[in-house]
Amino acid sequence: MLVLYPDILIPYAVIKNLGNYSGDHISLTGSTSAIISTQAEEYSDYSTDLIPNNTLKRKLTSSKPQLHLDKFVVKTSVEDAKKLDNQIARIFYGTNSPFIAVQHPEFCKLIHMLQPGYTPPTRQYIAGTLLNNVYTDLKNKLNGKMVCLALDGWSNVHHDSIVCVCVTDISDDVVYLVDKIDTQDNSHTWDYLQSLAISSVQYCKSLGCIVGSLVTDNAANMHKMRSNLAMNDDTSVNNIITYGCSAYLLNLLAKDIEVKGVKSYVKKIIKYLKYSHFFSAKLKMTGGKKLILPQDVRWNTMADSIESYLENWSIFHKICTDNRSAVQNDILTSDEDIAMKNRAHEYLIKLKKIAGALDRVQSDNYTISEVTSIWLTLQKYFENQAFDADILQKVSNRFQLAITPYHLLGYILDPRFEGKYLNQEQMDEALNYTNAYHPTVMAEIITYQAEGVPFSKYLFEEQTQLFTAVGSSAGIERLFSTFGLVHSKLRNRLGVEKASKLVSVFKSLNTIPKSTS
């Protein structure tokens, strides 16, 4: 049933449930009031015919609570709007999307369909206030944590020399970019890098986190910086564990044992197959696998390259045999060089073992005790395979550079290992270091080895420092890749400050913390 008024058609059910009737009008309550003139004389026929008088009087004089239009309207409170603004911004940060997309008509239409009455933030607001808020929340997560610090140099899209400082929270497997330094015209000497390391430790302290360890690559300036940092008079830094990146050293070990001629041999054949239209098509038609070229700047690509060549060798050999007239003479010669193929296969056996170790070591959550276990296993493998003395010496040299007394002590205190694969010389090295720098811990370590009573607080602090030290600085290398993705040629007007914040947030939003996995 409907009640008709000038220019307005109102359902009778609405009049039954909404408003107060008084005199010649109906007042609708809520956020909007509507006064509807009844004009009884002119529309008496409608009111008489459509609304029974006794029903209308009974309903209008009812004492039941009134309904409001608020129940029929979707509202966005100030708090809800803030939450929506923040979530929209996080989507843009996490996907590395251009902020201008927030003002695209189709995006605005989508938001209106999902939440009528809500206006999304502008790109300026996302790039400014919201970014600062999210970045501040991110830094607050470090409060009360003991972290491992890493720093390394890099050049951005404008070829500015930048030193990035990151920390790894081993408890959540998250790497945070906490600072960036524009070095301008300063050379990366060991003393300059040491000043940056000290200032970075102090900055982390201002964030509420404690730097327990410092890992860098093994360049000469970094190595000297680490050595001098341990002898620094500043008590806030001389107790920090410093060591080199094990992933970097494993990559160097792979180059140390390189078989002469294999790399150039494999590279020549793969380039010929990949970039020759005829042979590339033949390889695909016969079910060949993807070919990988070795790259010096990417770890483990040499192993992947040799493996891809050997997997495709039978197909490649058949293609060359069936199409001898179309194949270059030097490629035919290489195809028929079975001795070189066998040498490549022998080299791959060694490389695969190193590559497997490197893949694990460069993870963000491998501590120095776990890295020590990997190095010991690798060394034992090469010894058991009875490789020649030259290779064993190269493995031993890299082992000595990678494993410090900190590593050995962590390996002893880790309940998974308890130092079981250490020889007496290595055990003595760890205990001598402990006795020299942490004499109060010696009795506790002896108690631990004897499976005695619980330890004192001091040993737990020492263990925390050792068990939050990650084995490599590969996390900062991945941050450089993220930096290149965010601060790209298309977004080259981003300043270093804003780009570093976006990198930090992007990295955090695309990492699943251990606590939520």
TrEMBL record:
Cited InterPro entries: RNaseH-like_sf (IPR012337), ZnF_BED_domain_contain (IPR052035)
SUPFAM superfamilies given in the database record: Ribonuclease H-like (SSF53098)
Keywords linked to the UniProt accession: Metal-binding, Nucleus, Zinc, Zinc-finger
Any GO MF annotation of the entry: zinc ion binding
UniProt keyword annotation of Zinc-finger present: yes
Cellular component aspect of the GO annotation: nucleus
UniProt keyword annotation of Ribosomal protein present: no
Location in the cell: Nucleus
Protein name: BED-type domain-containing protein
The organism of origin for this protein: Aphis craccivora (Cowpea aphid)
